Amino acid sequence: MKLDAVLRLCHLVSPALPIGAYAYSAGFEHAVQAGWVRDEASALDWLRGLSSHSIATLDLPVLLRLHRAWRAGDADAVQRWNAQLHASRETAELRAEDVHLGRSLAKVLAELGITEALLWQQADTTMAAMFALAAVRWEIGEAEMAGGYLWAWSENQVLAAVKLVPLGQSAGQRLLHALLADMPGLVERAASVADADICSSTLSQVIGSAVHETQYSRLFRS
To answer: Which of 44, 110, 130, 188 is least surrounded by CB atoms within 10 angstroms?
Structure first.
């Protein structure tokens, strides 16, 4: 991958990107509240479970298909895969989180000159749809894009863990180091998932997200 594309990918996954990801925990907050996650070891188990049974089997396979659809100029395929991913978010909070991030990224991309993003600022836009659009326009390859998406998700979840469990900064770095070692295998696995096998099987996250909607005390929006 060319250096320009590497730097664009860094921009795309930067925590400084103003899309509001820091406000969401994707059910992690209730996992801590319920005692499912209580220390560094259980946080790693939780995150590995989500990355293996949701991100690598749902988000990344759809992300790869969105990349191919944008590259081919297939608007119908973009709409179809975006809609499938949106419909796969099992709770109101998970759907609201993805749409907020997707619309926010669409706004950023439109301001950076990617005009296709303009039409997605008011739709049920997923983060993956806009992430793939940016990757295609900035000539970021499929595998690198998938790795960047997985890194951004992991970093946001670890930051949530540091705040919620709570964990120290060194523990957070150990978590990221462990998750990083898993990423090449997860990206490779995602590339082999057939259309009919795209799914998520993280029931605890779904339950946690649903209960979080009425949780009395909350730091995060999901």
So the answer is: 188
155 is a domain residue: yes
Q: With beta carbons less than 8 A apart as the criterion, state whether 131 and 105 touch.
A: yes
Q: Residue 105 sits in a domain of what CATH number?
A: 1.10.4190.10
- Hey, how many other C-beta atoms are within 10 angstroms of the C-beta on 14? 11
Q: How many domains does the structure of the chain reveal?
A: 1
pLDDT band at residue 127 under the 50/70/90 scheme: very high
Q: Is residue 9 part of a domain?
A: no
* Model pTM above 0.90: yes
Is 19 part of any domain?
no
Q: Give Cα 2 to chain centroid, integer Å.
A: 24
Would you state the structure tokens that stand for residue 51, as one six-digit string?
């990355």
Task: Supply the pLDDT for residue 203.
Answer: 94
Residue carrying structure tokens 């009395």: 216
